[in-house]
Amino acid sequence: MSWTRRAWLRSISVSALAVASRDLAAHLGTGPVDPLVAAPDVWVLDVNGQRRRLPELLRGKATAVQTMFTGCSSICPLQGAMFAAVQEGLASNGGRRTKRLLSLSIDPLGDTPKSMQQWLRQMNAGPSWAGVIPVDDARDLRSVLAGRPPDANLDRHSTQVYFFNAAAQLCWRSPSLPEPGDVVSVLDHLANT
Fold this sequence. Notes:
This protein has about 190 residues and is an alpha+beta fold. Helices cover about 40% and strands about 20% of the residues. It is built from six helices and eight strands. Strands 1-8-7-4-5-6-2-3 form an eight-stranded mixed beta sheet, sandwiched between helices. The chain is globular and about 35 Å long. This is SCO family protein.
């Protein structure tokens, strides 16, 4: 009986530590971006293999950006499911034309337009959800999104969502794995300002 109680207490302690660590990390680099940061002027490939400038892709709509890679089997499917729920929330509250979701690969060497297209299909992405792959190294791009220098710890996969206004300016960083309703709310706010 004491072993079961000890195992139970240990699992609660580990769970509490994980939640506390997640909550502490979630508050670093979150919230409004001041001053606003222009989208990095980098080339990306869309699912059709077309080269596009990221700022041109972001301009004109409030956009929520997540970083991911198609070969990920741990956190990326959860992020995809979260964006799928956001997509449903956007469809139910109307005004979808002024809002967009963008999955941005952090693996330009491993991901291809075809693998991105397949990943989006698995996530049931609709017309307001696109995916792109940086043409070059993604470290500088990730640095701008995270608001940290390129030599900072960018090896870990970020689960934040980065919000751009219609002028292609980064204006908000979410906590780790935000609630879909929170993403919808921020997009609604940005689309109406």
